[in-house]
Amino acid sequence: MSKTKPTQYRFSFGPWNISEGADPFGGETRKAFPHEKKFALYRPLGFEGVQFHDDDVVPGLDALSPAQVMKKCAAVKKMLGNHGLTPEFVAPRLWFAGQTTDGCYTSNSAKDRAYAWDRTRKSVDIARAIDSNAIVLWLAREGSYIREAKDARLAYQRLLETVNAILDYDSTIEIWIEPKPNEPTDQAYVPTIGHALTLSYASKDHKRVKGLIESAHALLAGLDPSDEMAFALAHDKLASVHLNDQNGLKYDQDKNFGGANLRVGFNQVRVLEESGYGKRGEFIGLDVKAMRTQRGCPVTDHLKNSRELFLHLVEKSRSLNAKLVQQFREARDYEALELYILKHLMGVK
Known about the structure:
It is a single chain. The protein is α/β, with parallel strands linked by helices. 41% of the residues lie in helices and 13% in strands. Helix 9 (262-275) packs across helix 10. The longest helix has 20 residues, at 110-129. It is globular, with a radius of gyration of 21 Å. The chain starts with 9 loop residues before the first strand and ends with a helix.
């Protein structure tokens, strides 16, 4: 075992993770919880960081003047300070507006691309105003439903141009690219962390362009989240994680971390632990949704339970017999290694 001081993990989530019980196929099963009351719940649940969309900070952003935007930012910054919370990042919400139906930075419409860029600049300004140093690009509608709809080569050029434009717009902001292979588009551009880091290295300041990996997004691409994390960590480009789980190649489920596959969850924790993730203050972000059938208001057990399970798996990782694992590896006795891992997870001697 390492003699270095164990990582004291910090946790974050977004206010959208405390929401009404609705899905695309029916009405609400519990009442909505007021957005402004959610922030008082963070610290009691063991969370310090807040993930934001731009319009989580400034509702109705598109209709407000710059002065009105900054006034709202000041109020949110004060609220965060009062609750002892840290804004982890701000993400431009570029998938609801009518101008983004056919994509944002890769839209075939120059007018719509201009809207996306204007919204992105506002997001950077908002991040700065609330003392966050990062924006997240989830390229939700950057893709197509049929491949002939767009010039894919040109689309990737436009994405790189956007990354460079953000770097030029603010000399210190970091860009965290969050890849996802599908939904809401059929096939998305930048579907994996490998694509995201290629954009990073092609940019004019790759040290400020990193990746954010969500467990479910990697699983939807048919990949193991721990391998995706390891790839980013090997390049020192894992800025944050969104831990959750996924039951197969379906829609993005945002299930409780470890809820569908405990071993997959363990390996994510193990890779983060072995790589020293979090020692520089990086957050363990959760992006989990309550089960639609769960009653009550506010509903927060899914957040508490996911955090608790992560910490249990941290202890499982730290109590792993590293010498025995190495012996199995050297002997190529992977049957014995697998049995040891499974018994370790089950607490069987």
